Amino acid sequence: MNVIQSAPYSALSMYIGGEFVSENGRKTEPVFNPADDTVLGNLPHATTQDLDRALDAASRAFDKWRWTSPLERSRILRRVAELIRERANVIARDLTRDQGKPLSESVNEVYSAADHAEWHAEEGRRIYGRVIPSRSPSVRQAVVRQPVGVCVAFAPWNFPFNQTLRKISAALAAGCTLVIKPAEDAPSAAVALAKLFHEAGLPHGCLNIVWGVPAEISDYLIRSPIVRKISFTGSIPVGKQLAALAGAHMKRVTMELGGHSPVIVFGDADVGRAAALLAKLKALNAGQVCMAPSRFYVHKTILDEFTEAFTKAFSTQVLGDGLDQTTTMGPLAHKRRVDAMELLVADARNRGASIVTGGEKLPRSGNFFPPTVLFEATDDSKVMRDEPFGPIAPIASFSDVDEVVSRANALPYGLASYIFTRSLQTSHYVSARLEAGMVSVNHFGIALPETPLGGVKDSGIGSEGGSETFDAYVTTKFISEETA
Fold it and tell me: Is 290 a catalytic residue?
């Protein structure tokens, strides 16, 4: 092993009203390194009093932040982007320690997050209203868009820096304040963000970060009359529960939930290029990506050729500690994910699929599962119906365009999808008919700051990214004023 030597893991805390709040007698939970199961640190849980302080701080800060010039909001976000780039390597090391992904992926995540902060800084200056010509010369009619108020956000563990910053940037750029509960499994990213915003001069109370038992924290915050908007990225079952609770209190939601992304590789595709790109995407973060290609439908005329090329590229991953410079794929985030992979493989085999490579957990410490390819997985197998969220690629054949579109749309998911074809006609036809919030043709072209990210059906409500990101953070007010 060639593990990079680095400074100790950063101290963990909450961030409430501009203050870093450490343990001090509070309940804590250990944070583990998924590569070797060692304890990295202890994370303090918020008390009810802490949550009330955070809500009060956000409410008081909103009274001023909502009227702060968009140029000043932009200045702070741009300064955060600068600080992120300056400290990317330090932030990435801790991210790899508690999340598990290879250091190179962590560095990429941190740098891409800086782009999100910068984009929101500029786009937040362009939240425009409009003037409506009136029916009377003495009346002036205008539409203005105003920040909705205090927001609550819940960020996931698979991209803890990028996803947390996405939510913070959108809320602050719109003129909102927020309380955010990131994932307790990989907390260093959010603590680093609190320090960056603090140093950049964000007024105290605009950003508050708390930790705790997810169900308890979400229930308390969403029920609060102070909160007006909820943003959540995570699983579909939890998302539905939070959306129902928010709906009971008439609160806006943005929900970016799970997916089971179909990949359709047509007979005229560039097989070698498609296989190489898909293998790279599938290995990213050990397959723990909501938008990861996860159901592979390959035309029968190229089935063997594609399977061989994809397996060759996918199986060459070097598994290990993310801080080891030779590692290309890290561990899964939790032991339960390893158990889930084994169950999916066993079910697929029982239903007739064959294992081309991988298929069994590795006999070593840490949460490692090898790249696994399942050949001719049936549509009724669990791996083709349930989001695997791991390094398993089930491959099935098809022969007809409408048939494969129907199979791709058969699930309640609708987040991302992928098409590989040289035919413009096929591309237009299929992309228009796939029930997904995002479609990529012959490349990976989603999740950029300037493009909307969101799903349809059970995969979510609303979008994050693109100009659409502000839709749920602002209210529309019509003003009709007689001037005579």
Answer: yes
